[in-house]
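[step 3/7] fold_predict: job queued, chain A
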Amino acid sequence: MSSSRKPQLRSVCRTAFAATSAALAGVLLAACGGGGGSSTGTQSGPVHIKVWAWYPQFKQVVAQFNKTHKDVQVDWVQAGVGQDEYTKLKTALKAGQGAPDVVMLEFQELPTIQLTKGLLDMGKYGANADKGNYVSWAWNQASDGDHVYAIPVDGGPMAMMYRADLFKKYNLKVPTTWAEYKEEAAKLHKADPSAYMTDFGSDETAAGWRQGLMWQAGSRPYKYSASKLPNIGVKLNDDNAKKVYDYWGDLVKNKLVDTASYATTDFYNGLGTGKYATYIAAGWGPGYLSSVAAKTSGKWRVAPLPQWTAGAGAQGDWGGSSFSVTSQTKHPKEATEVARELFGTSEAAWKIGIDQAYLFPLSNPILNGAYFKSKKYDFFGGQQINSVFVPAANGISTFDWSPFQDYAYNTDTSEVGKALQGQTAWSSVNDNVQQQVTSYAGKQGFKVSK
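[step 4/7] structure written:
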């Protein structure tokens, strides 16, 4: 899951990376990972594992785990959502005490925490056996060869949600390409100047949304492996990234899309009043949309993400989370068991996750199982929306994150903001971000290649 659920969309960590250079200096010449303590086997009764997580309805998932595990019990702490949790975790890791045994981390945060040797290599405790249980792109983000630093839980494959009633009213065609999307956007705005095809996520809470669109377009901004430190490839201004901002910049300039900040009243109202005819969303979006636009129930449908090349089937992801074991655990074996099995392939846990928390599973048996794929959603007029989202999830290709993702997201948001204000050309945004991020990375001790 992502920290993008109500009351706010995906949060971008704002923590300054003043400590990055110091952390990097200590680990650049060593493989990133955690040592961790070991179970003594001397205590009586079950081993208690402390878990930090913010999943909705997680109390029920914990209860299900504890009911089915005799020797290991989970003690759940809600230590904050997104950045609030990460700040506490980084503080505890730096202090050498106070971190949980198991922690929920979004995928883009893994390289940053891993860099500080804050994560245990669960591959030493049997986690590699789970590789085939997960979609490959998520497993690749959670591991480095045979080193496993996280167990995937949920993701955010992207698709297009649209108001079927508005499409019928304005005789709009459901677009299959981005060129068609632009054509239909112009047709809509001509018919009703107060309506927009969608909202362009320009603020920091939408940084992951913009990255997901570039992911789908074929951009791969980083080449990163902890085992190859201090080397990292950074290419934030490749042609595929540039075409995304050229495209959306043109839609903005022609007033075919709105530019309200995500996670604001204006944005929520746009989804709920018919101001926006589509919402380019993630697999967790159905739960979010049904919450903020409840009065529009039955009017929405889901279609595949428009393509840059007709029939290409390219996909992107916005959001996703995992369970990691921290290097401070005294019970690495049991903590790994918890990380692997809290959700894992448990049908009981995932029924809670799917029906009540609107999580999008990355576990292959659940993702491709009949229950999830055939589930009908009243909010979407009874549509089996996962017949769209599941192929999207299975079609996502490999993508690397960087250990300075927060800085990159914040820089991108700043440059996009300048373009919106007319202070810089949309065609220059990616180049400006590339220059600033590579400069920053070099100052932190990384050897950057393009």
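[step 5/7] annotate
The longest helix spans residues 426-443.
Residues 11 and 88 are 16 Å apart (CA to CA).
exit 0
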